[in-house]
Write a structure and sequence with these properties.
By secondary structure, the chain is an alpha/beta fold. Helix content is 52%, strand content 10%. It contains 18 helices and 8 strands. The chain has a 4-stranded parallel beta sheet with strand order 2-1-3-4, sandwiched between helices. Strands 6-5-7-8 form a 4-stranded parallel beta sheet, sandwiched between helices. Helix 3 crosses helix 11 and helix 10 runs parallel beside helix 12. The mean pLDDT is 96.
Length: 419
Amino acid sequence: MNNHEQMWKELGLDVELHKELLRSIDNTFQQTVGKQNERPASMAYFDHVLHESHGGRVAELIEARKTGKKFIGTFCIYVPDEIAMAADAIPVALCGGTQFSIPYGEKMFPRNICPLIKSTFGLALSKTCPYGPIKDLGVGETTCDAKKKAWDVVNFHVMEVPQKKTDLDFKLWYQAVLDFKNRVEELTGKKVEANRLAETINIMNDKRRALQKLNEYRKLDPPTISGLDALVVMQAALNDDPARFTEHLIELNNELDDRVHRSISPFSKGVKRIMISGCPSVMGNWKVHSLIEKSGAAIVVDETCTGTRYFNDLVEDGAHEIDKQLRALADRYMKIDCACFSPNNERMKSIERIVDDRTVDGVVQYILQYCHGYNVEAIRVAGILSKKSIPNIKIETDYAEEDMGQLRTRIDAFLEQLS
C-alpha cells in the first residue's frame, strides 16, 4: 500500500473503489485531453494538478490542518475565497464531474436533479471523496432549488444569492458576505484584518489577471491553445493553491507568447470559432469540449462558471478599511451573471459583447440535464444570438458516454452550417 492509499484508508475511504474511480477518470482524461496534438509543454503542471487532486493536494491540506489552518469546501464561484484566505483558511471546490459516482448519488437524491449534484455527493456516499472527511466547513449557496435543499441534508453554511440585482438585493448579498466573514472567523478563531484581506484580494486578482491573459491567446486566429486545455487550466484553478497556480499560469502564458511568434497552434488558420455558453464543466468532465474540437472546430471562449464568469471582474483593491473591502468584494461577486437572476439582462449583454470580441462563428449552449435555470434561459440567449445572425445549438447532456455518438452527429451537422 503506497502513501496515498494509506492516507485514503486512514480517511475511511473505500480504497479499492477509490482506485477504480481514479482509473475511470484517468481513462476519460487519456481519451479526451491526452489525445490532443500540439499541447504546450507547460500544460504538464495543470495535468499534474488534476491527477494529484485526490492524492498530493489532499496530503497537502492534511499537513496544513496540522499547523492550525482550516479547510473550507465550496461548491460555487460565489464564495469569496479572499475572506477565507484572510482568516487563514484554505478554500477548495468540492464539485465532481464524473459519471462514476452518480449511481451512488441517486441512492439518496432524486434521479431528475443535475449531474453536478449527484456526482459530487455520490463521491461522498461511495466513500471515494477524500475531501469530505477533512473539511472543517462546507459552504453552499442559493443558485438553484436542488442545491438549496441539498445543503439542508448535508448541513452546509449557506450564502443567500439574491434573484434580482436591485439595491435591496445588494443589501441582502452584502449581509451574506458579512455573515460568511463572521462564520469563517468563528471557525478559525482569527479576525479578518484589513491588511491581510488586502493581500488576499491581490492574490486572487493576480490569478484572475493571469486567466484573462490566457484567454487573450484564444482570441487569435488560430488560437494558440485548445479550448480543452484552457478548460483543464480552469479546472485546476478551482483546486490548486492560488499563488502557486498563478506562478505556473504565467509560465504557460509565456510559452504561449513564444508559440505565437513561432506560429504554433493546434488549429489551422480560419478554424471555426465556437463559444461554449451555459453550465460549468468541472473536473472529470471533458466530453463536450473534446467532441467539438475533435470535429475540427476551436472553442475560443467559455461563457460559464469554468470560464469568463470566474475571472472577468476584479475586486477593487484600493480600499484599506475592512467595511469598504467587504463592499468591494460583494460588488465584484454580485456581477457574476448566473442564470439564477431574473431578469438576467447583464448576462445577455455579456454574451453580445463576448461573441463580438471573439468573432465567434457559432455558439454551443451547454446545458446539464435538469438545470432548469440555464435550460429555460437558453430561449432568450438563442433570441439574442439570432438577432446577431450567429447560429447556436443547445446540447443537453450529463457526464455519461452513452450519448456521445448522437452528440457527435449533431455537432458535426452544426459545424457544417457555419459560414
